[in-house]
Structures are given as structure tokens and as C-alpha cells.
Amino acid sequence: MEKKKDQWSTKLGFILSSAGAAIGLGAIWKFPYMTGMNGGGAFFLLFIAFTIIIGLPILIAEFIIGRGTQKEAVSAYQKLAPKSGWSFIGHWGVIGAFLLLSFYSVVGGWVLIYSAISIPGMIISDSANYGELFATITGNPLITIIGHLLFILINIIVISFGIKDGIEKTSKILMPLLFIFFIVLVFRSVTFEGAIEGLRFFLQPDFSKLNAENVLYALGQSFFSLAVGISVMVTYSSYLNKDVSLPMSAGSVSIMNIFVSLLAGLAIFPVVFAFGLEPAEGPGLLFIVLPEAFAQMPFGELFLSLFLLLFLFAVLTSSFSMLEIITSAFSEKKQRSRKKTAIVSGMLVFIAGIPAALSSSSLADFKIFGLTIFDASDFLVSNIMLPGGCLFIALFIGFRMDKSLIKQEFTSANNLSDGIYHVWFQLMRWLVPVTIIIVFLGSIGVI
User: What stretches pass through the bilayer (predicted)?
Assistant: First the structure.
């Protein structure tokens, strides 16, 4: 007898968990430094446009595939297109989630380490050089490996408990707290002397700074931030009841994602310019800027500790989704124990992530096409696997999936007109795949 499938207990729990999967490192860690390295306001504007025009339609599509089948990523495509090759999209997603989590958990380990050392007040001091502190932590092989391992272990524990008792409960409490704390940080950041230059850099587009590569990065960032392209949201929506509007839920997730990205930029760039830091610092930007900002506040160490803990939980809600797609793909299809599958999957991710964890220390000189293992992993996932996965999903929705099921899932539990459905469907069939192909070909110099 088949075991009853786990379900989200509430619509809010699903939306917050999906937002948690989308927000995490994508909006808070990666978005600021990608914006700093790729043109500031122009990159931000492109990111918003891609999120609304490309990312949101794909997010709806993943929700439709997942809830329409009530299956995890691999089985969903097998059910919708039996005896065909389309199931490779699910496999592509599982592999993408595995690779993404392998380096994502390294950054999660950094956040975990920073959270731990902030509690006894070991970060902020009058003579601290926060750039050197970041370099010291990431340049220590033992520390980074331990952080990476602990982060994976937390993921294994939560995923072992399942959807309702694991992911949903944590997301309901921690996501709202993160929003509130971020707003407080923004209010402080914009009051620094010289903050106006940071606001101008972030909010005033200068399109002369853009090139084809920047456009590809903006597209990849929109996919990374929404967690689309690797069928994470297919798996999440497979646990969803039929009384929830998928377009409305996807819209809520997208708006929250853009809002948190906006807050991240407003919190980071005023501080960067106020203290003469470099906006193109790279992956360490957040870890250098945050202590600098909190050091200027009363009870700064306490607030930094609280923020880092909330940031850690936001990072975890994203990583939960990645380990979930890997775990569910093997536990549901093969009827294996969720706990055992989560442990094995998590340990394999840990092993695969060790080279990325050592990219700033023992393997710093090892390059792949001029990139460290960490940066190469990031580039592969963000700029090839995520756009590729989104392209395949768009083609699947537009040309292979049963149209009556698509419309049924799109219109269920909402009052949206047929016109809105048809606009979305044509976007998925033509605009989304054509845009992805043009941006990708432009980035490699073909057009």
C-alpha cells in the first residue's frame, strides 16, 4: 500500500517555504555582489525585468507540473510524458540541485561560522579589518570544511522530518523575522554620511556599463534567486492541495524575492560607498560590509549576531529545497526511507563540495578556465544549468504537456481570465525560450 504523500498544512506555509527556497543566498548574498560587479542600477533593472517576464512564468510552470502530477521532479515528467525522453528534465534538475548545493553549502558554512563567532563578540572591534577576517576564515581549510559539514548536517536533520514538520514550521517563523530585521538595517545604512552615492549606484541605471555577459548574469541571477530551472519548485508544489492559486502564489514569491533583493541592495551599497569599500568585491562583499555597518550602531555586536542567525536560517530554507529534490527523487520513486536517503544524499553533497570549500586555501591555485573550483561551479549552475533547465521546461510546457491539464492547474482556485492564461502560455511557448537562447548566444559571442 502506497504511503500517503506529505502535504503543506497551509497556503501561507507553502508560499513562505517557496519564498525561503527562492530568497536565501540568492537575494541576500549573491545579488549584492553580482550587482556590484555588473553595472549597479542597470543590472538591477534587468534583474527585475527578467524576474517578471521570464522567471515568474517559469515558476508558474514548475508549480503546474508539480501539483498536476503530485510527483517529485523525475517522476513528474515521466508521468506527463511516458515512454519519452522528456524525463531528462527531472534528472537535469536533480543534478543541478546537487551541484548547486555542493558549493552553496560552503557559503552556508561561512554564514554558520560568522554566526558562531559573533555570539561571544569576536567580530566587531575598533581595530578590525573585516576584509582580512573574511580572508582568514575562508583561507583556513579546517574551518571551512567544518562549517561546510555542519551546514550539511543541519540540512539532513530537517529534511529527515519531512515537509510539514521540518521545512514549513521553520519557514513560518523565520522568514517574517528576516524581513523585519532587514528593514531595520536599511534604515541605518541609508543614514550614513556618503550613503547617497551608494543609493545612486544601486538605483540609477547606467546602461553604458552593460555588455552581453552582464545580461546573461542578470538572467542567471533571476533564475538563481527564484530557484527555477532545476525543478525544485516542481517538487515543492507536488505537496500542494488543489485549493491554492498557482499564479497568485508564484506572484507572491516573485514579489517577495524582488523586495528582499531591493532591501539587500539598500542595506549593502550605502555602506560600501560610505566607508570607501569596493562594490565589485565579489563573494565576500556581504561578510565585509555587514560588520562594518553594525559596528556603527549601538549594541552592534548583538544586532549583528541576531541578523546573522536570521540570515543563516534564510540560507537554510534555500538549501532545504535543494536537498529535498535530491532526497524525494530517490526516496519516493524507490520507496526508500526518507531519513536514510537524506543522510546518504547529504554526505555525497558534502564530499562533492570539499573542492569548492578549499578554493580559497589549498586549491586556490587550481583553475578551470581561469576560475577557482568554487567560481566555476557557480558559473556552471547559474549560467548554464539554470537557464538550460528553464529552456527545457518552457519547451515542455509549450509543446509537450497536455494543454487541458495546464489550463486546469493554472485556473484552479482563482478568478483569472482566459486572456491572462493565454498570455502566460504564449510567453512560455515563444518569448521565454527565444529570450534565453538569444541571451546565451549573445554571451558567447555568436550573435
Answer: 12-31, 43-65, 86-113, 133-161, 173-196, 216-236, 257-277, 297-320, 341-359, 379-399, 420-444
